[in-house]
Structure formats: C-alpha cells, structure tokens
Amino acid sequence: MNSGKNFSITFEKNPSPLSESQRKSILQDPGFGKSFTDHMLLIEYNTEQGWHNARIKAYGPISLDPAVCVFHYGQEIFEGLKAYKAKDGRILLFRPEANAQRFVNSAKRMAMTPLPEDLFIHAVHEFVKVEKDWLPDQSVGTLYLRPFMIASTPYLGVKPSPNYLFMLIASPAGSYFSKGAKPVTVWISEFYTRAASGGTGEAKCGGNYAASLVAQQEATKNNCDQLVFLDAAEHKWIEEMGGMNIFFVFDDGSLMTPPLTGTILPGVTRNSILTLAKAKGLTVREERYAASQWIKDIQSGKIREVFACGTAAVVSPIGFVKDKNGEYTIHNGQPGPITQDIQKTLVDIQYGNAPDPYNWVQEVK
Ligand SMILES: *Cc1c(COP(=O)(O)O)cnc(C)c1O
C-alpha cells in the first residue's frame, strides 16, 4: 500500500469560500473553536482497499448512516495541533510526528485501524498548504488543526468496525498569552475520576471528555474555572487538570509532574516542557503527588508556582485551588516567573522566533 508523500490527495476547491473581508474579520479575533476554514480533508479505510479516497473538499456537513458504530459505542479518537505563522511569513508545524504517533497509539487502544504516521503528517502538510490564508498573524494566534477518526460501518454489533473515516478540519484560534495568561481557579474533584488503570486514560478519545463534563459542571458550580482529577484507585494522587497536564514548581526551583502510569494523557507539551526545563538546568522529577500534600505545601510556601499545559492554551497558570475545606492561593494568584519563562521559551520555538535545537519545527511548503 502506498502511504505518506506518495499518497495522492485530490483537491476540489470550495466554489463559494468566505469572502476575503469576512475571513480577515474572523482572523482579527478568532476566539477558540468557533470558525472553520473553507475546506476539510477526508480519507477512508476499508479492509479491501486499505486507506483510500483521500480528498480535500469544501467544508460542510457529512452524511452518515444512523447505524454507524461511532454513534452507538463511541469508537472515536482525535488529535490537536497547530500551524504557526513565523514573522517572515513561513508556516510552521510543531512536532506533528508526535501527534501522528499518539494517534496510532490511541487507535490501537480503541481497536481501530491506525492511520500510518507518514500519511497523517502528509495530510496535515497538504491541508495547511490549501488553507494557508487562514493563518492568523502571530500577534493574534494560530491555526488549530483537529484530526479525528470515527468507526463508520453501519452495524450494531459490539465489535471493532471494519470501516473508518479519518478527517481533518481547521479552526483559527486566538492565543491566551498575548494578553498575559490569566491564572485559573481549580476545583479538586473528590468523587469523579478521569481514568482508571487498564482504561482509556492514555488514549485521546472523545469518550474521556464525555465522561469529564459532569465533573467540570461540579467545578463550575463551585465557582472554579477548571478541575483537577485525582487517581481512580485511591482518590489521592493528582493526575491532570481537565484536558491538560499539570506541573508544580517548588521553592528549591525544581519542577515536578505526575508520571505516565497509563492513566495520564502523554502530552506533547508536557514532554516538550520536560526537555526545555532540563536544558535550563532545572531539576525535573516525574513523581506522584498527593492532593493533601499539595495543599500543605501551598500553605507552608514550599509550592511556588503551578501550571497546566497543553497544545490549545500552551501554559495556563493555576492561581487558586479549592476543595470542600477551603481555598488556597498560589503565588498571590499571579503567574510565576518560571511558568512565564517556560511558556516564552516554548512559544518562541513554535513561532520560529528562537533557534530550534531539537528539530521540533517543520516548515509547510
Ligand atoms: C490532549 C490532552 C492533553 C495535552 O496534550 P498536548 O499534546 O500537550 O496537547 C492533556 N490531557 C488530556 C486529557 C488531553 O486530552
């Protein structure tokens, strides 16, 4: 089977794209996940032909049989990555091969046929080339890319689907950090958990998010922006903040993040920050951390800064923590210096404003 760069993707131009003035007005203040570009990419899979019928066409509704597996048993996975516009106009991707690899791992966990990594990367490059006019300037944000895959066989049996549909859509996104990231307030959820050992916590599947929404509602009810999940076995160890990984900065300048034990999503941002922090000479530990100890360490001053990280928001400082006993403030509710320094280092590489010693950045051309 041919894949990767030799895989041909047909292009059928949208006959009625948004006007230039409409597009420019969106690109000035895109928000997040509200507007979509003029096209979408589709690739189909079946057992006879393998991956086939790759095409880029006008963005719009797709037609599916109501019996397709994804509607009933949730066989679905997704990714999130961004295209960045450099100051010299070049268009850059950040570690797309890491997303391609994770997409394969997610597919395997959900008993789906993995999309070959080189085909994922080729599809992303070809699609971004088509939508290059949809990149916001770097003072505004990025083009957020959402690859996803669904089980598309019309069949109600509980078994892996023999047919899949891979799609890629794109949405211009404003950045949070342009205004200086505002620290969030987090709720420690004592009842709800995100992932159990042997479950799907490591896979980027929609079902994990569906299961987290009621916990997010609990956080909102307690006047918090986000929630922190504890482990499912003991309801004791900190795992993630909503859909982001979490880092703690201690008074000795060291950084700590929970280890990848199978219940935590292995973030590309998390991995990149571990590398960058080590290169800065910081001590970095991947260790379990009990929520009760976290509160004690905030009260004693041992905790200096806490932040969450992920592709969408990059780095999100945590200023306040709430649980059923009270509220605790970190770094006076302000973003800390190590948080800001790590964010700047990462963002500068992503936008091509700083050298890229790890070859993380790929140019779309
Ligand atoms: C996507 C995701 C992250 C962050 O991953 P990045 O690759 O850094 O964007 C963290 N936690 C969860 C649950 C996620 O789905």
Automatic annotation (TrEMBL):
Q: Does the keyword Membrane apply?
A: no
Please provide the record's keywords in A-Z order.
Answer: Amino-acid biosynthesis, Aminotransferase, Branched-chain amino acid biosynthesis, Pyridoxal phosphate, Transferase
Q: Name one Pfam family in it.
A: Aminotran_4
Q: What InterPro entries does this protein map onto? A: Aminotrans_IV, Aminotrans_IV_CS, Aminotransferase-like, B_amino_transII, BCAT-like_C, BCAT-like_N, BCAT_family
Catalytic activity annotated for this protein?
Answer: L-leucine + 2-oxoglutarate = 4-methyl-2-oxopentanoate + L-glutamate; L-isoleucine + 2-oxoglutarate = (S)-3-methyl-2-oxopentanoate + L-glutamate; L-valine + 2-oxoglutarate = 3-methyl-2-oxobutanoate + L-glutamate
Instruction: Identify the CDD domains for this entry.
Output: BCAT_beta_family (cd01557)
In which residue ranges is the amino acid composition biased (Polar residues)? 1-20
Protein EC? 2.6.1.42
Q: Per its UniProt entry, which superkingdom is the organism in?
A: Bacteria
Recorded GO molecular functions are: branched-chain-amino-acid transaminase activity
Sequence segments annotated as region (Disordered): 1-24
Q: Which SUPFAM superfamilies does this one have?
A: D-aminoacid aminotransferase-like PLP-dependent enzymes
Q: Which Gene3D superfamilies match?
A: 3.30.470.10, D-amino Acid Aminotransferase, subunit A, domain 2
Which pathway does the protein contribute to? Answer: Amino-acid biosynthesis; L-leucine biosynthesis; L-leucine from 3-methyl-2-oxobutanoate: step 4/4; Amino-acid biosynthesis; L-valine biosynthesis; L-valine from pyruvate: step 4/4; Amino-acid biosynthesis; L-isoleucine biosynthesis; L-isoleucine from 2-oxobutanoate: step 4/4
Query: Needs which cofactor?
Result: pyridoxal 5'-phosphate
Q: Briefly state the protein's biological role.
A: Acts on leucine, isoleucine and valine.
The entry sums up its family as follows: Belongs to the class-IV pyridoxal-phosphate-dependent aminotransferase family.
Query: What is the name listed in the Swiss-Prot or TrEMBL entry for this protein?
Result: Branched-chain-amino-acid aminotransferase
